Amino acid sequence: MEMTKKLVTEHLGISPEVFDMVSRAEEAIRPCYERLDDIMTYNQYKILAAFQKNSISDRHFAWNTGYGYDDAGREAVENVYSDIFHTESSLVRTQIVNGTHALTITLIGILRPGDEMIYCTGGPYDTLEEVIGIRGEGKGSLKDYGIKYKEVELRPDGNIDLAKLKETIGPDTKMVCIQRATGYSRRKAMTISQIKECFDFVKNINKDIICMTDNCYGEFLDTQEPTDVGADIMAGSLIKNPGGGLALSGGYVTGREDLVENVSYRLTSPALGGECGLTFGQNRTVLQGMFLAPRTVNGAVKGAMLCGKVFEQLGYEVLPSPEEARNDIVQTVTLKTPEKLTAFCEGIQKAAPIDSNITPIPSDTAGYEDKVIMAAGAFVQGATLELSADGPLREPYNVYFQGGLTYEHSKFGVMMAVQTMKDKGVL
Asked: Looking at residue 363, what DSSP letter applies?
């Protein structure tokens, strides 16, 4: 430890006081790490079993060209995803540009004019508001196509309001949606038990209602996934948890075969569906990233807990509390002022291996109503499994800290965030 302290304080800009403070917080939170290691180990072996079941070999890494017909590697990737998530079918494609796109094709692929969808975890993530039609007009939103939308706020205790949900479900309700991660709201992520309780409740009301989960940031936080407890379909991003830091782009949709097929028609076109689509030689990185994902997620979650502990000890409101079980990789810290939010994100950028010399500034960002500051010096642009922090410039100025390809890097990000706030006199 003394050698590490000497390196960090002499060459990486961290004062001895900040190093010691973070180290004390680490020792206080360390007993919680053992449970995370058990989850990581279970998921590592679950993924290994899926690879072996599908006889993955280096032939699955080969390139295809043109339309991408008969791509054995692409088929193997999607079979692996289906086995990991215990589903009938999967769509895992580089053509899916991010989590919002994966969710968009899921919603538009399944819902039809006159159908109604309900978000039962409050409002969706900001970038989905224009997809649904909550804001923005004439852009091909669900609202433009006559699809109705309702939302049910969470109860004050953070649980899904099942009584209100029952009142809200009507004869046109086609889909009930859960956003697992916190997004840009101040709430806890949804647990697997909460997801199961909700979807069991919905199916008891009407077994034909489709239960959908936005699983971004949630993969491998538990030994079960939403598709194990009643989700008919689920979507996420490859440059978050399941890509393991290696996937260069892409997203996935997994679930019931008929639903995934409908989604594939929106990704490409009716009749073509998932039969074509070039993988651009990315099958190896997608598979290797998935294989590494449990350990990478484990480091990210430990880093999030450490961040929560440090800032709790500094007197800030944090959510979830450091010792709580985790259901996404995000740590929320309420900073209260734009100066503190900006300084925190500057510190995360300084801690990056890529573009550490860049200073992030709040700016208008596609899909967001407020200016957003984003810090992410990543090997893959926008990969929030890598160390990053962001937040909208709106009260109460929450920062959302996530990622870190290794725990050690995530820990360094915490140190640098504290150091930068201290140096700017806003800690």
From this structure: B
Of 388, 371, 288, 326, residue with least CA distance to 73: 288
- Structure token digits, residue 20: 């010691």
Q: For residues 347 and 358, what is the distance between their CA atoms, to the nearest angstrom?
A: 11
pTM as predicted: 0.95
Distance CA 204, CA 141 (A): 30
Mean pLDDT along residues 303-318? 98
Q: Which two tokens stand for residue 305?
A: 């807990």
Strand locations in 15-113 (E): 89-93
Cβ-contact 14, 419 below 8 angstroms: yes
Both tokens assigned to 150: 């309702």
The better pLDDT of the pair 260, 367 is held by: 260
Q: Hey, what are 44's tokens?
A: 């590592």
For Cα atoms 66, 70, 73, give the angle at the middle one, nearest 5 degrees.
95
From the number of C-beta atoms within 10 Å of its C-beta (0-12, 13-18, 19+), residue 394 rates as: middle
The answer to whether 239 and 385 have CB atoms below 8 angstroms apart is: yes
Q: What is the pLDDT of residues 344-382, one digit of tens each?
A: 999 999 999 999 999 999 988 776 778 999 999 999 998
Nearest in space to 332 (alpha carbons), one of 387, 391, 378:
391
Q: Answer for the pair 330, 182: CB distance below 8 angstroms, yes or no.
A: yes
Residue 134 has phi, psi (to 5 degrees) of -65, -35
